[in-house]
Specification:
By secondary structure, the chain is of the alpha/beta class. The chain has a single domain, classed as Protein tyrosine phosphatase superfamily (Protein-Tyrosine Phosphatase, Chain A, Alpha-Beta Complex), CATH 3.90.190. The protein is built from eight helices and five strands, in the order αββαβαβαβαααα. The chain has a five-stranded mixed β-sheet with strand order 1-2-5-3-4, with helices on both faces. Strand 3, helix 3 and strand 4 form a beta-alpha-beta unit. Helix 4 packs across helix 5, helix 5 packs antiparallel against helix 6 and helix 5 packs parallel to helix 7. Belongs to the protein-tyrosine phosphatase family. This is Putative tyrosine-protein phosphatase OCA1. Keywords: Cytoplasm, Hydrolase, Protein phosphatase, Stress response. It is found in: Cytoplasm.
Amino acid sequence: MEPDYEEDDDHVYINEETELGRENVVISHAPRARIVPPLNFCPVERYLYRSGQPSTVNFPFLLDLKLKTIIWLANEEPQDALLEFCDAHAIQLQFATINPDGGEDDNPWDGLTEHSIISALRTIVNVESYPLLVCCGMGRHRTGTVIGCLRRIMGWNLASVSEEYRRFTGSRGGRILVELLIEAFDTQLVEIDRAKAPQWLLTAV
């Protein structure tokens, strides 16, 4: 059985293309634009996305999404590069937890409060904010909390909500307090204006 490749540089690389008698494809240089999604990036619904905090290398990718709004789910401010990116491209950056009047403290390690979750969800259920990205530092627990509460509004069962949340939590797994918060969240606290709601949400509710 012939090998799939040759280690000797004098030999031609053997792959499916050459085996089928097609010409070799030679790449002379890398693409000019690096299209790199942010950590834990994933579409949630049509024009609704989730991720960790975007960095400079992710900005070309974000431009392709034509974002109108980014919801930042942390008490600490995002990196200056993200703030400047939003200013330069007229993207509204909503701080869902930096709100002393709402009762949050300044501890960046604390979980989201009911007030901050509702604030984020009110933006998410309004199609005028779209395309929209929900993000936090790593795109795991805080982002997962808000998306989990959105799934509750959409009528998902708790097993499906927990499975989606844990998919993004990494090797350490999910946090039981996050799942309990999602389970206890009162979905009636988020009023949905059917005239402004995304179509996928109207279909779900």
